[in-house]
Each structure stands twice: as structure tokens, then as C-alpha cells.
Design a protein that fits this description.
By secondary structure, the protein is α/β, with parallel strands linked by helices. 50% of the residues lie in helices and 16% in strands. It has a 3-stranded parallel β-sheet, sandwiched between helices. A hairpin with a 2-residue loop joins β1 and β2. α1 runs antiparallel to α2. It starts with 9 loop residues before the first helix and ends with a helix.
Amino acid sequence: MLVVSDVYTLPDLLARAVNKFPDSDIVVFPESRTTYKELYERASKAACSLKSMGIGSGDSVGILMSNCLEFVDLLIGSQLIGAVPVPINARYKAKELAYVIDDAELKRLVWWTSHMMGEEELHKKLKLVKEVRDANPDGPYKKILREEHGMVI
């Protein structure tokens, strides 16, 4: 039976795992392996970086990345300081990005370019986000998404 005291955050679960299995793998990519201990250290560094950018408890942090270890670092690191991670699909178009950025009231957007989304493509999307915002200062993105993409919001 699940009791409220049995519910933990990802950082809590990671800390418990570090104590039990510090040298066991937690994240495995074709080109790299990361242990529980290494992930906790990486997430802690990400948390410190976010704090240095002024991110604190309750702040929303957008994470715009394809699948990579840095995504996991930021996902857990933001939770270590009480911030709310907002994973954003790297394949979103500009109008979808604009909607998520505004709806989540992001304090900071963090991105990492990769083979799936190069820097040129990212800058193009972010430029279009700005153009969408400038053209629609009140941000009626729900209407735009519903009409153009058939999304139910």
C-alpha cells in the first residue's frame, strides 16, 4: 500500500541510490556510461550553476535538449534547488515553443545543441519565437496552436 511518506523526489531517490550503489550505472548511452555517484555530482554542479543564474525554489527552468546526459543533469539539478524543470521537446516549432515558454512562465531557458538540433536551427526557432511574441504581445498562443495543430488545450 502506497503511503504519502513513500513518495520521494528524484533527487531523494538518487541520493539513496548513491549510498547503496555508488559505482553502478544509472545512465547508459552508446558512447558513455554514468554511475549514480557521477550523476549526483553532475546534478549538484548543475544546481550550483542554476543558483548562480538566480534560479531558486519555485522558479521554472525550461530544458530544450534532445536526449543527452546534460538533460538528466539539469532535470535533477533543478529539483535539487527546488526549481521546477520544464522539459521541452526539441522538435517543437517556433509557435509551440512560444506557447510553452509563456505558459510555463520560465525564468530561464537552457538549451544544448546537438546532431538533432544544430545551433543554426535553434537560433532560427528562437528568432521566430521573438517574432511571434512581438506580433502577438498578449500571447494568444493557445488559439494559434489549436487552429494550426489540432491540439486540445
